[in-house]
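ENTRY TYPE: protein
CONTENTS: sequence, structure tokens:
***
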Amino acid sequence: YLRATLLGQTVLGMNVHGPLLPAQREALARIETNQRHLASLVDDVLSFTGVEAGQLAVRPKVLQALETLQSLRPFVEPQAAGKGVLLRFSPVDQQLFVFADPDRVRQILVNLVTNAIKYTDAGGTVELAAVAEGDRTRFVVSDNGIGIPEESLPRVFEPFFQVDHGHTRRYPGVGLGLTFSRDLARAMGGDIQLAREKWK
């Protein structure tokens, strides 16, 4: 239903039935934004329940870390540009590899990056990097956004927990993104860690 409705709105935006007035285009843009957000929430819930039930397949293989990070661009650059956030890719050694499911790694990283962009105000920066740690590879997503209070750090991976809560929340969501991403990382033999550090 969501996909069919979104497709219908896109057809209207293509002026198939004649040009739209500016006010109509603005209303159409709001509808499409809300529908994408709702579809994202539904996907989060379905993905989370799939992991919890052990029904999400993982097919690991050797991946180049640099190529993995670059593959994120089409998924995250439009959001960053639309919000006025600088997306910075740190240099990565071309000989750095990771053994993981390419689709699942991308899913985790897109989740983390979009989350960082969401909580970073216009003019801020989100940085992506990959570094070697012994025989493992660490992907790093850092930002100079609003941050997380120290007392909330132990709870951020709890299902449905949100630091920003109440009826006037600035940042929409259901609070499953980090939980789902960590469970998925652990299913591939990895993990996700969160830390407060001084921005470089």
Q: What stands out?
A: The radius of gyration is 18 Å. The chain is about 45% helix and 15% strand. The helical segments are 2-13, 22-52, 65-70, 73-83, 102-118, 177-187.
